[in-house]
Amino acid sequence: ELGVERRFVPESCPRTVRPGDFVRYHYLGAFPDGTRFDSSYDRGSTFNVFVGKGQLIAGMDQALVGMCVNERRFVKIPPKLAYGSEGVPGVIPPNAVLHFDVLLIDLWNSEDEVQVQTYFKPEKCPRTVQVSDFVRYHYNGTFLDGTLFDSSHNRMRTYDTYVGIGWLIPGMDQGLLGMCVGEKRIITIPPFLAYGEDGDGKEIPGQASLVFDVVLLDLHNPKDGIAIENQLVPESCERRSQTGDFLRYHYNGTLLDGTLFDSSYSRNRTYDTYVGKGYVIAGMDEGLLGVCTGEKRRIIIPPHLGYGEEGTGKIPGSAVLVFDIHVVDFHNPSDSVSITVHYKPSNCTVLSKKGDYLKYHYNASLLDGTLLDSTHSLGKTYNIVLGSGQVVLGMDMGLQDMCVGERRRVVIPPHLGYGEEGVEGEVPGSAVLVFDIELLELVSGLPEGYMFVWNGEVSPNLFEEIDQNHDGEVLLEEFSEYIQTQVETGKGKLAPGFDFEKIVKNMFTNQDRDGNGKVTAEEFKLKDQEAKEEHDEL
Questions:
Q1: Is there a catalytic annotation at residue 100?
Q2: Do both 460 and 522 map to the same domain?
Q3: Which residues belong to any copy of the PPIase FKBP-type domain (predicted)?
């Protein structure tokens, strides 16, 4: 009788051989005395055959039925189920009992289809693979017995391809459909949907079933545009970004599978760029339009609007990019100072002008509300001469036409503030500044070009009055003493907000035309006696 001894049975046996199945197996053939007459191992290839179709000796046809892949059986076949009384001349003698040590490697049926087993699926699956999509995935490729023949992990590079248009073996084209990014599945492919009778001529033999353990990392379609997911939009949004605006924003950049490739937060510095001008990848140029200051949004960019097939740095080729951005501020190079008056006293007749000496309190912040500085915390006002260059140009503009007691908000674009460089450790480069100001005191300045004016009539003997020792020459000490006396007695007025000694020395130097440290009567002239282009003289 036929004898079958199951010497090894794998724990997992999802399928067993049935008549009509195609099998691939290794074997050792020997006589009862141990003499070997044949071996598939010696030939370096499995024995491939249909079961139950008369292509095998009857005993082997029966012995293979019910086997699992990776099962090992020891089979004793009597002559009547082998080669009978005739044998095989030169190989098998007549009436020989045959022993076979069989290891089943592969098993499939012509009616098989691609089998898909998903063993991990993300909770969120906004999109699945469709025909003509482009995917990036990792895989381990094995035969049914678990032998590894290929792995993208070993190459440390994803397999990148279109799906459903013939770039893959038909079984993989089918097996990838419906997958989510992050999903893991095992795809089992019969040979007639893989490499068929001939194999691939390299690692994959003919008639081999293939098993791919796949994890999908990326997915897009060439027709995709960018996708925007609003995560936080401020309630107040007075202005949205447009082409030509300059933005400062933070971002985290990841791949679709969540792998971080870049972050402005890690550099502790915003990314600053013009929008719609080609300074950034096309998808980001588009995704940054229409944002508000303070807005957070997710921008998903397909590779043809990102870094394309080649990729860059840590970004692989054909990768979909995900940017989670936070807009810190933006402006346009054509912007001027923006002034919003929050409070104006009913009596507001004296307005600030160039040359006035102002004392005011302020809170300075960025557009996102980050506090930069405050005079309130210092317990003293900030004092300047308006229009004298003691503050940034935007503040000089923002303090114009203000009355004492008025409160206003002044928004200053960077080209009227601290520019591209900013102030190290205090004001970021290209930052829009917001000043909340309260004017506390205003001392009217002098007409433009004057550092000193008379409050009454000018003495016709002015030079003689200044030249106290009547030697025909005025020294700086005499000049300084005379001006100080005129100011203290109310006969004259100096430009407010400047250092007395510096003003007087400037006035004296302008009179000392030959630069010898003395002013003579011939050199001495009043302002209205000077040519129009000369300034800051007595």
A1: yes
A2: yes
A3: 20-108, 132-220, 244-331, 355-443
Q: What pLDDT is attached to residue 528?
A: 53
User: Is 525 in contact with 537 (CB distance < 8 Å)?
Assistant: yes
Predicted TM-score of the model (pTM): 0.78
pLDDT per position as a tens digit, 429-484: 999 999 999 999 999 988 877 888 888 888 787 888 788 888 888 888 888 888 88
- Note whether 65 and 52 are within 8 A (CB): yes
Active-site annotation holds for 436: no
323 catalytic? Reply is no
pLDDT digits (tens, 9 = 90+) for 509-534: 888 888 888 888 888 776 555 544 44
Are residues 209 and 191 in contact, defined by beta-carbon separation less than 8 angstroms?
Answer: yes
User: Which phi and psi (to 5°) does residue 488 adopt?
Assistant: -70, -30
357 assigned to active site: no
**Domain CATH number, residue 129:** 3.10.50.40
β-pair partners for 26: 103
Q: Are residues 313 and 361 in the same domain?
A: no
* Tens digit of each residue's pLDDT (9 = 90 or more) over 26-69: 999 999 999 999 999 999 999 999 999 999 999 999 999 999 99
Catalytic residue among 21, 22, 25, 27: 27
Of 50, 57, 74, 373, which is the active-site residue? 57
Q: Which of 83, 139, 251, 271 is catalytic?
A: 83
Report yes or no: 107 and 115 within 8 Å, Cβ to Cβ.
Answer: no
